[in-house]
Amino acid sequence: MLYGYLDLSLRGYIIYTLVCTHITIAAVTIFLHRCQAHRSLELHPIVSHFFRAWLWLTTGMDTKAWAAIHRKHHAKCETSEDPHSPQILGLSQVLFEGAELYKAEAKNQETLDRYGKGTPDDWLERNVYHRHSGKGYFITLAVNLFLLGLPGVTVWAIQMAWIPLFAAGMINGVGHYFGYRNFECPDAATNISPWGILIGGEELHNNHHTYPTSAKLSVKWWEFDIGWLYIKTMALLGLAKVKRLPPKETLVPGKVGIDDETLKAVINGRFQLMAQYSKSVIVPIFDQEKNRVSDVDTLDRIKLTLIREDSLVDDAGRKRLELFLARTQQLKVAYQFRKKLQEIWAKTTATQKELLDALQEWCKQAEATGIKCLQEFVAYLQSYTVSFQH
User: Fold this and answer.
1) Is there a single domain that holds both residue 25 and residue 169?
2) pTM of the model
3) Most CB contacts within 10 A, which of 4, 49, 349, 381?
4) Interior CA angle at 113 toward 52 and 82, to 5°?
5) Beta bridge mates, 195
């Protein structure tokens, strides 16, 4: 039949296509990404086998290769060894040639051996999904032709292009180039949109790079991660078990001292803490001092540099910031204390007592500056703690 067994209307074809591509996106974000690459959740064997079969039919992606490449991306992010950084390779290449970059890295046996451990290695994986990775496509084409007729070829073409465009290209490309940042993680990852629906929640890429082992990608109350909705639904049905979520910030009323619990919270919740420092200390002082510069464009860039991860600031940005801080004593002090606070958790060889002493001394010196918002931040820090949800 020209129009296949289902004989759908135009609306029916659109719905069929969207449903199929969305299942593929869900399989990538839930199974490949959160479950396999980051081990942030466990899936029931029935769910895992369904996702593996679906991905074989619609993408031909190898689980071990995908997980290995993604883990390497996190380990080598924004460096020459990153398999798909737009900061290194350029946005255009990653956006439009993301699938080719994936295929090239999948041939790197060193990447597979080093980063691909712990992925499925059963009979199906070895003899079907891996050995015949390119044959699932044709089964999908045959099913589309039977169900949809000739229009099924167009639907099939969209299905085949969906992951290369939106996952390989959009997330790896745009997600490291444009968007907003909740946290200053040490790479250029951004949140493309606060509502993660079209790409299964992967739009919240800055959140993910800040807390890569979290099964939930939304952090702010106004963000939405549809992949997390599916995970929670499966968990209620006994089909998934969440292992890790982002640390939850908590303030302890009446607590005024810096102790071991505070130190632990500062280290584990450092990205949230620095976001709060920027919001409650850097930005208020900047707003008071900005009348010293008349160039609005320069002001916007200086403000961004003040709260930006240091490794992401270029030489021109550092020069502008130095000139501005030279004329704003309070802001200069606040910025210096920001860097000193970051240096505390960067002391990886220090003992817990040394770190605690450094944090207590930081608070003592911050209070002595006489800068009100900095003193208020010390009070905030003294009551600060975080908890991890499982």
Assistant:
1) yes
2) 0.92
3) 381
4) 85
5) 224
Structure tokens at 343: 């240096």
Domain assignment present for residue 1? The answer is no
Residue 43 lies in a domain: yes
Bridge partners, residue 225, by sequence:
196
Tokens 């160039």 correspond to what residue?
A: 295
Q: Which residues contact 345 (CB under 8 A, 6 or more apart)?
A: 266, 267, 270, 355
| Residue type present at position 291 | N
What sign results for the dihedral spanned by CA atoms 212, 218, 224, 228? positive
**Is there a single domain that holds both residue 205 and residue 267?**
no
2 assigned to some structural domain: no
Question: Counting beta carbons within 10 angstroms of the beta carbon of residue 123, is it exposed (0 to 12), middle (13 to 18) or buried (19 or more)?
Answer: exposed
State the virtual CA torsion across 289, 290, 291, 296 in degrees, nearest 10.
180
- The tens digit of pLDDT for each residue in 341-360 reads 999 988 888 899 999 999 99
Angstrom distances, CA of residue 230 to CA of 23, 28, 38, 289, 324: 11, 13, 17, 47, 48
